[in-house]
C-alpha cells in the first residue's frame, strides 16, 4: 500500500518534471525543460518532496483505513501540497509580481483549498471535525504569499504556527472523541498535526524563513484576465485570509428575505388564512353566558406570568470600542472570527453568538462570554480572568496562560488547558456538565478529561458545615 501511495503522490507533481520539449505552466509563460528540471532539483524542492512523501503519505495511509469523507478531504490536502510544490518551482523561474499578478499566480492553490472548504458546508455529518480540521489547516499554505513585512501577514514561520491553532481546535475534538474508540482516527489527527508542526514549519524555517525568493531575471507573471461580471475574484494576500471562502457561502440575510417574501406572498393570496375558523357572535366574549366580571385567581396568575416570546437579536457586530473593548455580538454560524490586533489593556466581550468560533491572537486583559450557544473560543493569554456566563455548550481552548476561569449559570462547557495553564483557578457556580481537558503525561500522549463535580454533600460537623463533592461509584 505504501508503494501505491507514493506513486499517487508523485503523479500529482510529475507534470513539472516531464522530459522532452517545453513545459507550459498556466499563467506563467513557457519555461524550457532544462530550467524546469534545474528548479525541480533544487535542494528546497527536494526537501519539499520529502515532506510530501513522509508526512502527507502518513496521513493518507491513516485516511485510507477510515475511508469516506475523511479520505476525500485528505486527498485534497495532498493535492494542495502538490499544488504548492508546483508554485515553488515556478517561483524560482518567475519575477516577483504585483498584488494583482500574485493573486492570479496563487489561484491554483486557492482553488484546491476552496474544494476542502466546500466539504464543510451544508448539513454536518459524523466527520465534520475531521473535515474542518483539514480545511482550516490549509490556510497555513498561505505563507507562500508573504512578500515583505508591509504585506499585512505574519512572517512565514509564525503564519504556519498561527494557522494551525484554528485547525487544532477541531483536531483536538477528533482526539477526544476517538481516543478510546478507534486508533485510526487518533493516528489521522496526530499525523495531520505533525504535517504542519513540526513538518511544514521546520521546512519553511530551513528554506523560506523570510518568504519565497523570486527570480529577478525570470519571466514576469501577467495579471489574471478579468472574468465576467459577478465572477468571484481571487482573494488578496494582505491581512484578509488568502483562502477566504466568504464569497462561496450563501448569505443568511438573503435567505431570510426570501423566506419572508414567501410568507407575505401567502398572506396576500389568502392561502394561510383560508383554513382559519370564523368567530360567530355567540363565541364573542361579550355575548358568552359563562363569563362573569370576576377574574379567578388562577386566570389572574396565568395572565401575569405568561409573556409572549419575543426574539431580540441585534445586528452582528465585531468592533473595537473606545480603543479598550472588543465587542463581538450576534454572530451566527461564523467559524472564522479572528481578533489579531489586541493588547493587554483591552478586554473582549462576546454576547449572543451561536454556532461560531472566535480566535483571539495575543494577550488581553479580560474575556467574557455571555449568553452564547455552541460557541468556541481559542485564546492565547489573559491577564485577569476568562468568564463564561449564561451559556450553553461552549468550548474554550487556552494556548497560553489564564490566572482564573469563571463559569456561572452555564450548561455544558469543555475547557482545554495546555501545559502552561495547568495552575489556572477554575470557579463554577450554578453550572453543570463542566469538563476540563489537560495534556497527557508525555508530549505525544492523549488528552486526559476531568469532569468537575456539580453535586455536593454538606455535613454539619463540629459546629460548622463541611462540603465535599459527591463521589459516584465507578467514577
From TrEMBL:
Q: Which portions of this protein are annotated as coiled-coil regions?
A: none
Region: Disordered; residue ranges are 222-260, 274-317
GO MF annotations in UniProt: actin binding
Bias category Pro residues: which stretches? Answer: 226-239
Q: Which Pfam families match?
A: CAP_C, CAP_N, CAP_N-CM
Q: Which residues form the C-CAP/cofactor C-like domain?
A: 315-452
UniProt xrefs under PROSITE patterns? C_CAP_COFACTOR_C, CAP_1
Q: Where along the chain is composition biased (Basic and acidic residues)?
A: 278-291
Question: Which residues fall in a compositionally biased region of kind Low complexity?
Answer: 240-254
Q: Which InterPro entries match?
A: Adenylate_cyclase-assoc_CAP (IPR001837), Adenylate_cyclase-assoc_CAP_C (IPR013912), Adenylate_cyclase-assoc_CAP_N (IPR013992), C-CAP_CF_C-like (IPR017901), CAP/MinC_C (IPR016098), CAP_C_sf (IPR036223), CAP_CS_N (IPR018106), CAP_N (IPR053950)
GO terms for biological process, alphabetical: cytoskeleton organization
At the top level, the lineage of the source is Eukaryota
Q: Which family does it belong to?
A: Belongs to the CAP family.
Protein name, per record:
Adenylyl cyclase-associated protein
Organism in which the protein naturally occurs: Brassica campestris (Field mustard)
Q: What is the lineage of its organism?
A: Eukaryota, Viridiplantae, Streptophyta, Embryophyta, Tracheophyta
Amino acid at each position: 500500500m505504501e508503494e501505491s501511495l507514493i506513486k499517487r503522490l508523485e503523479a500529482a507533481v510529475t507534470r513539472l518534471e516531464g522530459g522532452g520539449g517545453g513545459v507550459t505552466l498556466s499563467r506563467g509563460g513557457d519555461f524550457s525543460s532544462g530550467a524546469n528540471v534545474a528548479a525541480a532539483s533544487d535542494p528546497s524542492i527536494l526537501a519539499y518532496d520529502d515532506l510530501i512523501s513522509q508526512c502527507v503519505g502518513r496521513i493518507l495511509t491513516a485516511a485510507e483505513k477510515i475511508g469516506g469523507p475523511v479520505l476525500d478531504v485528505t486527498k485534497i490536502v495532498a493535492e494542495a501540497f502538490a499544488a504548492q510544490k508546483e508554485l515553488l518551482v515556478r517561483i524560482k523561474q518567475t519575477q516577483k509580481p504585483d498584488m494583482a499578478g500574485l493573486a492570479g499566480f496563487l489561484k491554483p492553490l486557492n482553488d484546491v483549498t476552496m474544494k476542502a472548504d466546500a466539504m464543510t458546508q451544508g448539513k454536518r455529518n459524523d466527520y465534520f471535525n475531521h473535515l474542518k480540521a483539514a480545511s482550516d489547516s490549509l490556510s497555513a499554505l498561505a505563507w507562500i504569499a508573504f512578500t515583505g513585512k508591509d504585506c499585512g501577514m505574519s512572517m512565514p514561520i509564525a503564519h504556519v504556527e498561527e494557522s494551525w491553532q484554528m485547525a487544532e481546535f477541531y483536531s483536538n475534538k477528533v482526539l477526544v472523541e476517538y481516543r478510546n474508540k478507534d486508533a485510526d482516527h487518533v493516528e489521522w489527527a496526530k499525523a495531520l498535526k505533525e504535517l504542519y508542526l513540526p513538518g511544514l514549519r521546520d521546512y519553511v524555517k530551513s528554506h523560506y524563513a523570510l518568504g519565497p525568493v523570486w527570480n529577478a531575471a525570470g519571466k514576469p507573471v501577467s495579471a489574471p484576465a478579468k472574468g465576467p461580471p459577478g465572477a468571484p475574484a481571487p482573494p488578496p494576500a494582505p491581512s484578509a485570509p488568502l483562502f477566504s471562502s466568504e464569497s462561496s457561502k450563501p448569505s443568511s440575510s438573503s435567505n431570510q428575505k426570501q423566506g419572508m417574501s414567501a410568507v407575505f406572498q401567502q398572506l396576500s393570496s389568502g392561502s394561510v388564512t383560508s383554513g382559519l375558523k370564523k368567530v360567530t357572535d355567540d363565541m364573542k366574549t361579550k355575548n358568552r353566558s359563562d363569563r362573569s366580571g370576576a377574574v379567578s385567581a388562577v386566570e389572574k396568575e396565568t395572565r401575569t406570568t405568561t409573556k409572549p416570546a419575543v426574539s431580540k437579536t441585534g445586528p452582528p457586530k465585531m468592533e473595537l470600542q473606545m480603543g479598550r473593548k472588543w465587542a463581538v455580538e450576534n454572530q451566527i454560524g461564523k467559524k472564522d472570527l479572528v481578533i489579531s490586533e489586541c493588547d493587554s489593556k483591552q478586554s473582549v466581550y462576546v454576547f449572543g453568538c451561536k454556532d461560531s468560533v472566535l480566535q483571539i491572537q495575543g494577550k488581553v486583559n479580560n474575556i467574557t462570554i455571555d449568553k452564547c450557544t455552541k460557541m468556541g473560543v481559542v485564546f492565547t493569554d489573559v491577564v485577569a480572568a476568562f468568564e463564561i456566563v449564561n451559556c450553553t455548550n461552549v468550548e474554550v481552548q487556552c494556548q497560553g496562560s489564564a490566572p482564573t476561569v469563571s463559569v456561572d449559570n452555564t450548561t455544558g462547557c469543555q475547557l482545554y488547558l495546555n501545559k502552561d495553564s495547568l495552575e489556572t483557578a477554575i470557579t463554577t457556580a450554578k453550572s453543570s456538565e463542566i469538563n476540563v481537558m489537560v495534556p497527557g503525561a508525555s508530549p505525544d500522549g492523549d488528552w486526559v478529561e476531568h469532569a468537575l463535580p456539580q453535586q455536593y454533600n454538606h455535613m454539619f460537623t463540629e459546629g460548622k458545615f463541611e462540603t465535599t463533592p459527591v463521589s459516584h461509584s465507578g467514577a
